[in-house]
What we know:
This protein is of the alpha+beta class.
Amino acid sequence: MDTYYYPRINRRFTGKLLLLLLLIVTAFLGADCFLSSCASINSRYCDQQVVRTTTGVTTTRPMVQASWNGQVIADSDDTVVVEGNHYFPPDSINMEFFVPSTTSTNCPWKGVASYYTVRVDGKENKDAAWYYKSPKDAAKQITGRVAFWKGVTVS
Length: 155
């Protein structure tokens, strides 16, 4: 009869390995967002301080700007962060740089997104901004707000 040797699992080593994995994940995702779950629909602004909208807590938040091709195209201190994207209020968008697009996509929990092409100094960034005109109930906080991708810098 064969005897198999099963090595003992070193619990201290396993714990250290799990801690190292957690540190790597938080470094990759960003500690604030990962640990506080601020990427959820119920929170605002992630980089400095989480402000829960359901608590009524008011804090000073820094101005967030979106820029592309050397031009600031949106700035606000009232962005809503969902899935890591800052959604800017409609009145913070400099509409002279936005051209409505015919593109639309569907998100299972947010609804139908519409897009803008960003145009600055004769250069175009097709479908670089999106918004939800009539989102589903779970995403009502971002109604009409605009988010960015495709090389638009948000800082």
